[in-house]
């Protein structure tokens, strides 16, 4: 039985190239394509799709949001994310919501085909370049360093964490660190995700426990 694939990318030329590549596989059936997140969700609701090949940067509804909504509709749906972002934060967040494949747009057609088949089987596929990146984060670290939660944060993320714990707003932190509000928000999201924190109160507790916030 062919794998019914729906392609979602806002660049029509890129979609056409993907379609031409995937149609060469006997067990792939391209059932549709779009540049709209809303149309992806409509296709999922119609139950005529086994797997979504989804660009991370979609206009209107972003790729991660589309994936989240699609998986709420159909928890067993296979989603493979296509992206230019070699960013561990994106990867971890997408795997957390249930995406099964993470493939860089610079990867080969063979890797994409492998990702699709793995995701359809229910397995997880991470682009080899990203897998190497994740492993490299731990190479050379001692056990003590890995167990130290502060070692998970970059210097900039520690600064943002500290300012947040002291009660500063994103705008205030941006001004102090000469960053944009959006960059501060990105750092904040990464801090919360890396440390598994849900609320600001938990962040304050973490800062106190790890010496980032002095209570004297």
How do the helices and strands line up, and which of them pair or pack?
Layout: E1 3-8, H1 12-22, E2 28-34, H2 37-45, E3 51-55, H3 63-73, E4 78-83, H4 88-97, E5 101-104, H5 109-121, E6 125-126, H6 128-136, H7 143-147, H8 155-165, H9 170-177, H10 181-195, H11 200-209
Parallel strand pairs: 1-2, 1-3, 3-4, 4-5, 5-6
Helix pairs in contact: 2-3, 8-10, 8-11, 9-10
Features:
216 residues; Arc Repressor Mutant, subunit A; alpha/beta; single chain; 2 domains; Rossmann fold; 11 helices
Summarize the structure.
With 216 residues, the protein is of the alpha/beta class. Helix content is 52%, strand content 14%. It has a six-stranded parallel beta sheet with strand order 2-1-3-4-5-6, sandwiched between helices.
Description of the molecule:
By secondary structure, this protein is an alpha/beta fold. The protein folds into 2 domains: 3-134, Rossmann fold; 143-209, Arc Repressor Mutant, subunit A, CATH 1.10.10.10. Helices cover 52% and strands 14% of the residues. The protein has helices spanning 12-22, 37-45, 63-73, 88-97, 109-121, 128-136, 143-147, 155-165, 170-177, 181-195, 200-209, and strands spanning 3-8, 28-34, 51-55, 78-83, 101-104, 125-126. It has a 6-stranded parallel sheet, with helices on both faces. Strand 4 (78-83), helix 4 (88-97) and strand 5 form a beta-alpha-beta unit. The chain is elongated.
């Amino acid at each position: 039985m062919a794998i019914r694939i729906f392609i979602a990318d806002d660049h029509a030329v890129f979609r056409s190239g993907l379609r031409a590549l995937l149609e060469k596989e006997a067990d792939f059936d391209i059932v549709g394509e779009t540049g709209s997140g809303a149309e992806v969700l409509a296709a999922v609701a119609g139950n005529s799709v086994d797997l979504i090949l989804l660009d991370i940067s979609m206009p209107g509804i972003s790729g991660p949001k589309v994936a989240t909504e699609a998986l709420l509709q159909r928890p067993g749906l296979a989603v493979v994310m296509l992206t230019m972002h070699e960013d561990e934060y994106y990867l971890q967040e997408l795997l957390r919501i249930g995406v099964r494949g993470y493939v860089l747009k610079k990867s080969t057609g063979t890797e994409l085909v492998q990702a699709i088949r793995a995701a359809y089987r229910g397995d997880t596929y991470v682009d080899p370049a990203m897998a190497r990146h994740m492993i490299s984060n731990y190479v050379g670290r001692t056990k003590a360093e890995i167990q130290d939660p502060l070692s998970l944060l970059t210097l900039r993320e520690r600064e943002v964490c500290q300012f947040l714990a002291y009660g500063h707003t994103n705008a205030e932190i941006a001004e102090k660190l000469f960053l944009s509000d959006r960059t501060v928000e990105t750092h904040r999201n990464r801090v919360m995700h890396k440390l598994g924190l849900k609320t600001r109160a938990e962040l304050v507790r973490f800062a106190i426990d790890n010496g980032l916030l002095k209570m004297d």
